[in-house]
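Below is a typical protein record.
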Amino acid sequence: MSNTQAINYKKYYPTAVALYFTYFIHGIGASIIGQYKQDFAALWGAEKLVDGTFDVSMVLVVIAALGLGRLISLPFAGPVSDKLGRKVSGLIGIICYVAYLGGIVFAPNMIVGYIFAIVGGVANSFLDTCVSPSCMEIFPENGSIANMFTKFSISVAQFLLPFMIGFVASSMLPFKTIFLVAVVAIAIDGILIAFLPFPPKNGGNEEVKSDKPVKKEKMKFTPVSVALISIGFTCSSTFMLWLNCNQELGRLYGVADPSKIQSLYAAGTVCAILMSTLLIKKGVKPVKILVLYPAISAAMLLAMYFIKTPSIVLIGGFVLGYAAAGGVLQLCVSTANEMFPKDKGKITSIVMIASSIANYTIINIAGWLTKIGGAEQGPLYVILLNLGVTVIGVLLALYVNKEYSKEQIA
C-alpha cells in the first residue's frame, strides 16, 4: 500500500494536469461543430430554408460520424492502452485530434467532413482509454473522483466555449479560429505528454503472477445487466441530442443569443458533477441517481415542448446540463463495474460502445427529423425524440433499481 502511494504521489501530478487538459480540448471538439452548424452548412453547400437560414441536416449527419469513429475504434483502443501503454494510447488520440480539428474546417464538402469526424471519434476512444485509467492510477485512493474530473474538464471547456465564440465574432475573426487555436494547444500538450512520466499500469500490480493457470470465467449477462448497458445508450442520447440541437430550438423560441444555452448547459453539468460526488461520498448509490436525473430531464423536455418561451430554453439548458450530462454516463459505468468486478475493462467498453451507438444513430435520426420538419417543426420533432428516449431510460433505471439489490445479494 505504501509502495503504491509512493509510486503515484506528486511525481505524476503534472502528467495528470496535462491529461485533464486533453479532455478540456475534447470538450471543445465534441460540441464546437454544433455551435457552428450554419457556417459548416454554408461551407458545404447546403440549401437555404424559407427563413433564410441553411439546412443543417447534413451537419448533424457529420456530427453523428463522431460516434461512428468511436464505435469503430473502441474495440482496439483498450487493448492498445493495456498492451502498449497509456502514453501510446494518449499520443494516438492527440494526433487524431490534431487531424480532426485541423482538417474539418478545411473540408470542401460533407463527405470529407464526415471522414474527419470519424477521425475525431477515433481520437475520443484513444483518449478515453488513456486519460481515465491513468488518472485513476495517479490517484489510487480517489479513483472515482479522479475519473469524474475528466467530465469536469469537458464541462469547463463547454462553459467557456460560447465566450470564445463571442470573442471571435466581435473581433471579426473567421469561425475557424477556435479550431486552429485548439489544434496548437493540444499539439503542445501532446509534446509535453510524450516526455512526462506515467505510473505503472494498475499500480504495478500486473507484475504479480501465479504459478497456477487462472481459469477465465465468461461474463454472464442477465436482463438487469442488459438494461444497465441500454441506459448507456439512453442517457447518452439525452445529452447528445440537446448538446447538438439546442441552437435551433433557441432560435425558434426567440432566444436573442442562443450561445447562452451552451453556457448554462455547461454550468449545470459542473454543478451536477460536484453534487453527485457529494451524494456518493454520503453513501447514495449511483443506481438511485440513474432514476432521478433522467426523470428530471424528461420533465424538462416535456415542459419545453409545451411552453414556447425564450426563458424556458435557457432554464432547460441548465437543467439538462445538470440532469442529462452531469455524470449520468459515468455513474452508469460505475454501477456496471460493481456488477462485473472481475471484468471492469470489458463492461466499461461495452457501456461506452452503447454510448457510441447512441451518438451515431440518434444524431442521424435527428438530422432526418430536422430535414423533414424544417426550421419550425424540426426542433420540436427532436424534442419529442429526446423525450421518448429519455422516458425509456427512466423505465430501464426503475427496473434496474428493482432487480439490482436482488442480484447483488445473490
Q: What stands out?
A: The chain has two domains: 1-203, 222-410. The longest helix spans residues 344-409. The CA atoms of residues 7 and 132 lie 18 Å apart. Residues 207-214 have pLDDT under 50 and may be disordered.
